[in-house]
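Hi support team,

I've been running sequence recovery on a batch of backbones for a student project. Most finish fine, but this one hangs at about 90% for roughly twenty minutes before it completes. I'm not sure whether the input is malformed or the queue is just slow. I've pasted the structure tokens below so you can try to reproduce it. Let me know if you need the job ID as well.

Thanks,
M.K.
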């Protein structure tokens, strides 16, 4: 006895391969941005380290994090190629 309905056993991913690659790029940018923000502190609370205000930590790293989140949004909105 055969069924009239063909059931597909193949699972289909929510996003396409291209979208997952774009998401990977976004996640890498976010991780790199957070890694660049680390450090610059001092072990001694009485000693000030001006390295905490370097342009790398103040400008570049947050820009990378925001760019990573923007790329994730683009990846989510990217249409699947058929």
């Amino acid at each position: 006895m055969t069924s009239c309905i063909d059931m597909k056993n193949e699972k289909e991913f929510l996003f396409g391969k291209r979208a997952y690659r774009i998401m990977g790029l976004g996640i890498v940018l976010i991780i790199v941005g957070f890694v660049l923000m680390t450090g610059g502190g001092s072990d001694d609370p009485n000693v000030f380290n001006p390295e905490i205000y370097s342009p790398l930590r103040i400008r570049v790293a947050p820009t990378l994090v925001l760019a990573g989140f923007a790329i994730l949004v683009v990846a989510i909105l990217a249409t699947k190629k058929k």
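--
Follow-up from support: It reproduced on our side and the slowdown came from queue contention, not your input. The chain has a mean pLDDT of 85. No action needed from you.
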